[in-house]
Amino acid sequence: MRKLKLNELGRISVQQFKESPKTPIIVVLDNVRSLHNVGSIFRTSDAFRLEAVYLCGITSTPPHKEIHKTALGAEDSVKWQYFNETTEAIEKLKSNGYLLLGIEQVEKSTPLEEFQTDTQQKYAVILGNEVKGVDQKVIDRCDQCLEIPQFGTKHSFNVSVSAGIVLWELSKKWVLTSKDY
Predict the structure, then answer these.
(1) Residue 150 · residue 126 · CB < 8 Å
(2) Residue 4 falls within a domain, yes or no?
(3) In a domain, 126, yes or no
(4) Which is nearest to 96 in space by CA: 127, 124, 137?
(5) Containing structural domain, residue 132
(6) Which of 10, 78, 91, 161 has the fewest CB atoms lying closer than 10 Å?
(7) Where is the signal peptide (predicted)?
(8) Could you report the per-residue pLDDT of 67-99, keeping only the tens digit for each?
(9) Within a 10 A sphere around the Cβ of 65, how many other Cβ atoms?
(10) Around Cβ 177, how many Cβ atoms within 10 Å?
């Protein structure tokens, strides 16, 4: 085996990314405080060619050197929008036909592995603050909450890790079956 060089990876340019079909998922960050987590989520959103990232409340926005440190330029390729309140973002998404999926441990949550994506549906994945999680007023507006199974002594993942797990699980039908990827 030989490790591939960057020029062998077949990556598309930022302009090609912007013009290419997207996986119909928008990530909503509800008061995520760490700039590194924000940058990491931009990078994951780029990797799975997601539609956009919505930054809400105290979540910082590009341009910022600490976001760029982990995003590595994905903040330039992935479309993003800022909202003062997360509820504003999710009301916009709901009115545009997105199914709102909170990623949180709640009563009657759906285990991630049991959730079936529908390639005809648009999704909004809502991830919360590193300490408090997704705000209850946001959960109250969600169509469903998904929970990542965990088997150790901790009850949570880092928000950027949660994003990677959930976004792969939701986007893989499009990524693995589309000729556009």
Answers:
(1) no
(2) no
(3) yes
(4) 124
(5) 14-148+157-175
(6) 10
(7) none
(8) 999 999 999 999 999 999 999 999 999 999 999
(9) 9
(10) 10
